[in-house]
C-alpha cells in the first residue's frame, strides 16, 4: 500500500508563430491547434510518508535543464524540501508538434528562435500545477504492474546501425525494437480508479514536419482515448482519471511503419545512407500506416491505447516495498570509464557530427548532408571554421570516427551551446525501478542499460526488480548509441554528443545509483557539480505582437465563410471567422479554450458543449494576413456515433487594441456559426 496522487494540467502555451520543437525545421512554426498539451503528474509515497517520488510526463519535445531548474525552484518555495532534484522526475513524451523556446543552451536557441517566455512559462506552470493537483489528491491506494507486447507500431529507423552490434547480443532478441509496454495501474483502497503510466519506446513523429498544428502526436492520442473512456461524459482535458503514455528508449524507433520511400519516385530508400537515386537524402521519407499523417497518428495511438487498456484490465501483480530515489549531477564531458581492469576510456566535450545535419527518415535535414558520414565535407567544414571556429585536435580525436560539424562543447557565446552538467537519476517504487535518462537511448543502448542496472540490484540483495527506462528526462543531451552503432555514424550516432563511450559512462553511473539504493547508502552519494542557470535575455526572433485589425466594415468574430445547413456523420463542418492572433489569448489565460461545438437541447432550450479545442475531432487554423489582419478557420470532423441534431460552432479569441503609443490592451471577443443539422449516415 502507498499514498498515491494524480494530477493533470494544461501546458499548451502559444499555438501561433512559435517554432515547433523536434524536427529543427525553421519553417515549421505553429499555426493553430489540433489537441492540447498536458502535464500529467503522479506522486507515490510510503504509507508513513517518509519518502515520496514524483513522476511527471509532459506533452513536450523534451525536458530542458532550464525548465527543470525553474520547476524545482517553484516547488521549493511552495513545499520546502518535500520535492527535490532527487525525487522529482520530469519526462517529455517527445512530441514534435509542441512549441519550443524553453531552452538555455545556445544550440536550441537557433532552431527555436531564442528564449520564448510565454512558451517556457506555460510549461513551467503546467508542470507545477499538475504536481499541485496530485499533491492535494494524495490518498491511500494500491499500485499494480503489467507488461505486454505491442505489434505493428514501430520500425527501427537505423537498422544498419543496429546490425553493427555483436551477433551474439542480437540473437538474444527477437526484434530490432523493444516491443514491450510496461504499465502501472493506480487505484485507491476502495478500488476507485486513479490513473496509469505506460512506458513504450516509439517516436511521436506520426505527425511530420509539414504539420503546423500544435498537438501531442500518437502518445497524446493514446492518453486522450484512455482518459475519454474513463472520464465518461467529460470534455477532453477534464475529469479525475489521468493516463500518461510516457517515452522510453525510443532513439532509433519510428512509428512510420511503411518504412522509407523516395517521395519523388516511390522506390524504397532503406539503405545505409538513406539516399534516393534522384534528389539524394532530402527525398527519403518514412511513411506511417495511415493514408495521411492524421490517420497514422490515430492508428498508432489507437494501437498503444488498446494494448494499455488490455494490460490495465488484467493487471494483478501488485507493487510492494519501500519508495526511494537517487540522483547525481555529473560533468558528462569528463567521465572516466573502466571498461575492464586494464582498460580506461573517457567521454568527450560535446560535439555533433556531420550526419546530425542529415536528419532522419522521419524528418530530413537541409542541404546535402547524408547519414552515415564518417568523413567531413571540406565545403561545410570551411564555413564552420570561419563562422564558429575549428574544433580542437583533442575533441576531434576524442570523437573519432565522428567527423565534427559543430564542436558545441567549445562554443560558449552568448552561453554554452550544450550542457556539460547532466542529471542521472533512478526512482524505485517497491520492485519497480524507473531509470530517468537525459536523452534518447537507442533500442540496444536501452537494453544494455536496463540489464546492467538489474544485475546491480540483483547482486546487492534486491532481486527480481522490474527496470523501466523513462526517456527525455531532466536535461536534453540528444542521443545515446552503443559503441558499435557509433562507428557507422548515422543520425543517432552523430548526435551522441559525449563521444563513443557515452553509453559506457551512463551504465557506470546508473549502476552506482542502483547500488546506493540497494545498499541503502544514497545519503553517501556525492551530489556532483550543480548545473548553471543562466539569466537569459529575452532575445527572440519571434515577431512582436502588434495590434490586430479587421477588414473594412467587419468586426472580430464575424463569419467570413459560413457552414453548410446540413452535414452527415463523417463529413467536415467548416467555418471561417475574422480572427486575431491566438498568442494574445495564451498571454492572457493559460487555459484559454479557442472553440466549442455545441448541440441544441430543445427540452431546456439551451446549447450544450459537446467538443472543445482539446478534442481530436476539432481543428483550429490561424492564417496571418497583411497589416494585422488574420482569419481563423475551425473544422469539426464529425465523428462516427455523433447524435443527430442541431449544432453550432463558436470561436473565442482576444484582439490587441492600441490605446496609445505605449499602451495596448487585449479585448476578448467571440464568433458563432449559423446552426446546422447533423444527420446519421
Automatic annotation (TrEMBL):
InterPro entries membership: Ceramidase_alk (IPR006823), NCDase_C_sf (IPR038445), NEUT/ALK_ceramidase_C (IPR031331), NEUT/ALK_ceramidase_N (IPR031329)
Which parts of the chain are coiled coil? none
Q: Does the keyword Chaperone apply?
A: no
Q: Which reaction does it catalyse?
A: an N-acylsphing-4-enine + H2O = sphing-4-enine + a fatty acid
| Pfam families, A to Z | Ceramidase_alk (PF04734), Ceramidse_alk_C (PF17048)
Record bears the keyword Electron transport: no
User: Which superkingdom does the taxonomy of this entry point to?
Assistant: Eukaryota
This one is known as Neutral ceramidase
Amino acid at each position: 500500500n502507498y499514498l498515491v496522487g494524480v494530477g493533470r494540467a494544461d501546458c499548451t502555451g502559444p499555438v501561433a508563430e512559435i517554432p515547433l520543437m523536434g524536427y529543427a525545421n525553421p519553417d515549421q512554426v505553429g499555426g493553430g491547434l489540433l489537441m492540447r498539451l498536458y502535464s500529467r503528474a503522479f506522486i507515490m509515497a510510503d504509507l508513513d510518508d517518509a519518502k515520496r517520488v514524483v513522476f511527471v510526463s509532459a506533452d513536450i519535445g523534451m525536458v530542458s535543464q532550464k525548465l527543470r531548474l525553474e520547476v524545482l525552484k517553484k516547488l521549493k518555495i511552495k513545499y520546502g524540501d518535500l520535492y527535490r532534484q532527487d525525487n522529482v522526475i520530469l519526462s517529455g513524451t517527445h512530441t514534435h508538434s509542441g512549441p519550443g523556446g524553453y531552452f538555455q543552451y545556445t544550440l536550441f536557441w537557433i532552431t527555436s528562435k531564442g528564449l520564448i517566455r510565454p512558451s517556457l512559462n506555460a510549461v513551467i506552470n503546467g508542470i507545477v500545477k499538475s504536481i499541485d493537483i496530485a499533491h492535494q489528491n494524495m490518498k491511500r491506494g494500491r499500485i499494480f504492474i503489467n507488461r505486454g507486447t505491442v505489434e505493428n507500431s514501430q520500425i527501427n529507423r537505423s537498422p544498419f546501425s543496429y546490425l553493427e552490434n555483436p551477433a551474439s547480443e542480437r540473437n538474444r532478441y527477437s526484434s530490432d525494437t523493444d516491443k514491450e509496454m510496461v504499465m502501472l495501474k493506480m487505484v485507491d483502497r476502495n478500488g476507485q480508479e486513479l490513473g496509469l503510466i505506460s512506458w513504450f519506446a516509439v517516436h511521436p513523429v506520426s505527425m511530420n514536419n509539414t504539420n503546423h498544428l500544435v498537438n501531442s502526436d500518437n502518445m497524446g492520442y493514446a492518453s486522450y482515448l484512455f482518459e475519454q473512456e474513463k472520464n465518461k461524459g467529460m470534455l477532453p482535458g477534464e475529469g479525475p482519471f489521468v493516463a500518461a503514455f510516457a517515452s522510453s528508449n525510443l532513439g532509433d524507433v519510428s512509428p512510420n511503419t511503411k518504412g522509407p520511400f523516395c517521395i519523388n519516385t516511390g522506390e524504397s530508400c532503406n539503405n545505409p545512407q538513406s539516399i534516393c537515386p534522384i534528389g539524394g537524402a532530402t527525398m527519403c521519407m518514412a511513411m506511417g500506416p495511415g493514408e495521411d499523417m492524421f490517420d497514422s497518428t490515430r492508428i498508432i495511438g489507437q494501437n498503444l491505447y488498446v494494448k494499455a487498456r488490455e494490460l490495465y484490465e488484467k493487471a494483478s501483480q501488485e507493487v510492494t516495498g519501500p519508495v526511494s530515489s537517487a540522483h547525481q549531477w555529473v560533468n558528462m564531458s569528463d567521465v572516466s570509464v573502466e571498461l575492464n581492469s586494464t582498460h580506461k576510456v573517457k567521454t568527450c566535450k560535446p560535439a555533433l557530427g556531420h550526419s546530425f545535419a542529415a536528419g532522419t527518415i522521419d524528418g530530413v535535414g537541409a542541404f546535402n548532408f547524408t547519414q552515415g558520414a564518417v568523413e567531413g565535407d571540406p565545403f561545410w567544414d570551411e564555413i564552420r571554421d570561419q563562422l564558429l571556429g575549428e574544433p580542437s585536435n583533442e575533441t576531434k580525436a576524442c570523437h573519432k570516427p565522428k567527423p565534427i560539424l559543430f564542436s558545441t562543447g567549445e562554443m560558449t557565446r552568448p552561453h554554452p551551446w550544450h550542457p556539460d552538467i547532466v542529471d542521472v537519476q533512478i526512482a524505485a517504487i517497491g520492485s519497480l525501478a524507473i531509470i530517468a535518462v537525459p536523452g534518447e537511448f537507442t533500442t540496444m543502448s536501452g537494453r544494455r542499460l536496463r540489464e546492467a542496472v538489474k544485475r546491480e540490484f540483483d547482486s546487492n540483495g534486491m532481486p527480481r526488480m522490474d527496470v523501466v527506462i523513462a526517456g527525455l528526462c531532466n536535461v536534453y543531451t540528444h542521443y545515446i548509441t552503443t559503441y558499435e552503432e557509433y562507428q557507422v555514424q548515422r543520425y543517432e550516432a552523430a548526435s551522441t554528443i559525449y563521444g563513443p563511450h557515452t553509453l559506457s559512462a551512463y551504465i557506470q553511473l546508473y549502476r552506482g545509483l542502483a547500488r546506493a539504493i540497494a545498499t541503502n547508502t544514497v545519503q553517501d552519494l556525492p551530489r556532483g557539480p550543480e548545473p548553471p542557470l543562466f539569466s537569459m535575455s529575452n532575445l527572440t526572433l519571434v515577431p512582436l505582437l502588434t495590434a490586430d485589425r479587421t477588414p473594412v466594415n467587419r468586426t472580430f468574430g464575424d463569419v467570413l465563410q459560413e457552414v453548410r445547413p446540413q452535414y452527415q456523420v463523417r463529413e467536415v463542418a467548416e467555418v471561417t471567422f475574422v480572427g486575431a492572433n491566438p498568442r494574445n489569448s495564451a498571454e492572457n489565460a493559460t487555459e484559454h479554450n479557442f472553440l466549442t461545438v455545441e448541440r441544441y437541447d430543445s427540452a431546456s432550450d439551451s446549447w450544450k458543449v459537446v467538443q472543445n479545442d482539446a478534442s481530436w475531432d476539432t481543428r483550429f487554423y490561424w492564417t496571418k494576413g497583411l497589416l494585422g489582419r488574420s482569419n481563423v478557420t475551425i473544422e469539426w470532423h464529425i465523428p462516427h456515433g455523433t447524435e443527430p441534431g442541431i449544432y453550432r460552432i463558436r470561436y473565442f479569441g482576444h484582439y490587441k487594441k492600441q490605446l496609445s503609443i505605449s499602451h495596448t490592451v487585449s479585448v476578448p471577443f467571440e464568433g458563432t456559426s449559423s446552426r446546422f443539422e447533423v444527420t446519421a449516415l
